[in-house]
Amino acid sequence: MSDIETLKAEIKKLSARAMNAKMNLHDLSEELPVNWQTILDVAQKAHNAFAELEAKREQLKSLETA
Fold first, then answer.
1. Cis peptide, bond prior to residue 33, ω within 30 of zero
2. Which long-range CB contacts under 8 A does 4-9 form with residues at least 24 apart?
3. Would you list the domain boundaries of the chain?
4. Residue 49: is it exposed, middle or buried by C-beta count within 10 angstroms (0-12/13-18/19+)?
5. Which pLDDT does position 28 carry in this prediction?
6. What is the pLDDT of residues 6-61, one digit of tens each?
7. pLDDT of residue 2
8. Distance (Å, rounded) from C-alpha 38 to C-alpha 31?
9. Reduced to 3 states, what is the DSSP secondary structure of residue 18?
């Protein structure tokens, strides 16, 4: 498997993880004020997931243009 194919597979997994984190954040927001104590933790997980996804997408873009 090439580096690009491997990276695309990673991006697919990261995208699913990011969407799951997004839904967790959305679900938490709908339940507020219940579990308000978990806002920072849930938001940080969503932030990290999307940051990692964006970094991998940039890495893929640079490989494809090289």
1. yes
2. 4/60, 4/63, 4/64, 7/56, 7/59, 7/60, 7/63, 8/60
3. 7-65
4. buried
5. 98
6. 999 999 999 999 999 999 999 999 999 999 999 999 999 999 999 999 999 999 99
7. 84
8. 11
9. helix
Q: Is the pLDDT of residue 1 over 80?
A: no
Q: What is the Cα–Cα distance from 48 to 61, expressed in whole angstroms?
A: 20
For residues 59 and 7, the answer to whether their CB atoms sit within 8 Å is: yes
CATH architecture classification, 7-65: Orthogonal Bundle (1.10)
Please, are residues 28 and 39 in contact by the beta-carbon 8 Å criterion?
yes
